[in-house]
Amino acid sequence: MTHWDAVVVGAGPAGSATALLLARAGAHVLLLDRARFPRDKPCSEYLSPESTRILGRLGGGVAEAVEAAAPARLHGMKVVAPSGAAMVGRFGERFSYALPRTTFDTILRRAAERAGAVVREGVKVEDLLYQRRAVEGVVTREAGSGKRETCRARVVVGADGLRSLVARRLGFVRTSPPRRVAFAAHVADVAGVVDLGEMHVGRNGYVGLGPIGDGVTTVALVLPLRAVRRHGPPRLFEALDRFPGLAGRFDPGRLVRPVLATGPFAQWSRRPVADGGGALLVGDAADFFDPFTGQGIYSALRGAELAAACLMSGAPLRTYARARRREFAGKWLLERLIALGVGWPALVERAVARLARRPDLADLLVSATGNCVPARAVLRPGVLTRLLW
Ligand SMILES: Cc1cc2nc3c(=O)[nH]c(=O)nc-3n(C[C@H](O)[C@H](O)[C@H](O)COP(=O)(O)OP(=O)(O)OC[C@H]3O[C@@H](n4cnc5c(N)ncnc54)[C@H](O)[C@@H]3O)c2cc1C
């Protein structure tokens, strides 16, 4: 049995980036995923502009591989209110990449392996091992053979996404309204798609869409959980046609990937580090509120940088928790305010009308959600007031 410096659970952006950074620093890292890559993930597949800088910092050919995958480039976001009124905000000189998660996640997973991490796919983590109160490893089960194994490590990194087993076993998981679920599809030749991400808010849910290269558009319909419980899963194209800015833009015959469902969201962990030590959480395993602002991949990558910095310095794990609070507190608040506001159609109408008349404010808000400027630039009382009055 090998004793690892780190066992990383989940090879999505959070896990692969953490494994890459630790392995490059000389750590003996095991990266586990229950899926086999390339694996898909329901997502709008937009990397906020600040993520581009992180890809550069990750090195290992990641930024070059993303560029070589011919991603779409988005220069801002368009938000359409239930009435059809619209506003556009731009990232200024910056842009964001958008590409299929099958491609993006495989690039990161390969880079982690090249950096020296040992990667095992088709291996599900089923439990945590404890030594007194400290986590000291994981129990795994191999898909197919069903073989169980224990892997011991100085630290277990829970990067296992929204339904994180690691967070659940640590007993940290919390949920809150608004509880929403998403249905994500890839559709070719959608009419009117330009170099912008689009968010269409309806009276009952919203749609995010944008180009991801090669004439394909990623489309995610997000609905309140209670509506889906009451009426069952939606007929995607009928539901899209009810949004004024989307009617008539889709040919159902051009669906190029089956619809993937995910949720409910608004789930986070009370703490990102285990009380007794030996484990920490990154990415969606640590927190995921709502996809409206499209900051999940950025948070996963930036969280990986913070986690790796803490582990490599040998500092106590609580310094990682503090670093996350410093880094993300403003983003968390902005994300929650927007996600809650989106549930109030009258408020959205008002904000969209206001921002359509104030392109400077629209650019500021979109740049903050793209992590190009700090969230606190929007959270000032004067700016919040001007967004609505
Ligand atoms: C509808 C929707 C749209 C979104 N749009 C955007 C967007 O446009 N831009 C953006 O930045 N973010 C977006 N997000 C958020 C983004 O998808 C996530 O924040 C991001 O995937 C988080 O990365 P992660 O590595 O933490 O988790 P994941 O990408 O979910 O990876 C977790 C990995 O862990 C593995 N795993 C899970 N359990 C186990 C286990 N027990 N054992 C072993 N392996 C396990 C899984 O197989 C998976 O590979 C969206 C989310 C949704 C739902």
Q: Runs with pLDDT <50, length 5+? A: none
Could you say which small molecules are bound to this protein?
A: flavin-adenine dinucleotide
Our estimate of the beta-strand percent is 25-35%
Instruction: Please state the oligomeric state of the protein chains shown.
Output: single chain
Q: Count of DSSP E strands?
A: 20
How does this structure look, described?
- By secondary structure, the protein is of the alpha+beta class.
- It has 13 helices and 20 strands.
- Strands 1, 2, 8, 9, 10, 11 and 19 form a seven-stranded mixed sheet that branches. It has a seven-stranded mixed sheet with strand order 6-5-14-15-16-13-17.
- A hairpin with a 5-residue loop joins β5 and β6.
- α1 runs parallel beside α4 (101-114) and α2 runs parallel beside α8 (296-313).
- The longest helix is centred in the last third of the chain and has 24 residues, at 318-341.
- Flavin-adenine dinucleotide binds at residues 9-15, 32-35, 39, 41-46, 48, 124-125, 159-161, 165, 182, 184, 220, 262, 283-285, 288, 291, 294-298, 300.
Brief account:
This protein has 389 residues and is α+β, with helices and mostly antiparallel strands. The chain has helices at 13-24, 49-58, 62-68, 101-114, 165-170, 225-231, 236-241, 296-313, 318-341, 345-357, 359-369, 376-379, 381-388, and strands spanning 3-9, 29-33, 46-47, 72-74, 76-80, 86-90, 96-98, 118-121, 123-131, 134-142, 148-158, 173-175, 180-188, 197-202, 205-211, 216-224, 255-262, 267-269, 279-281, 287-288.
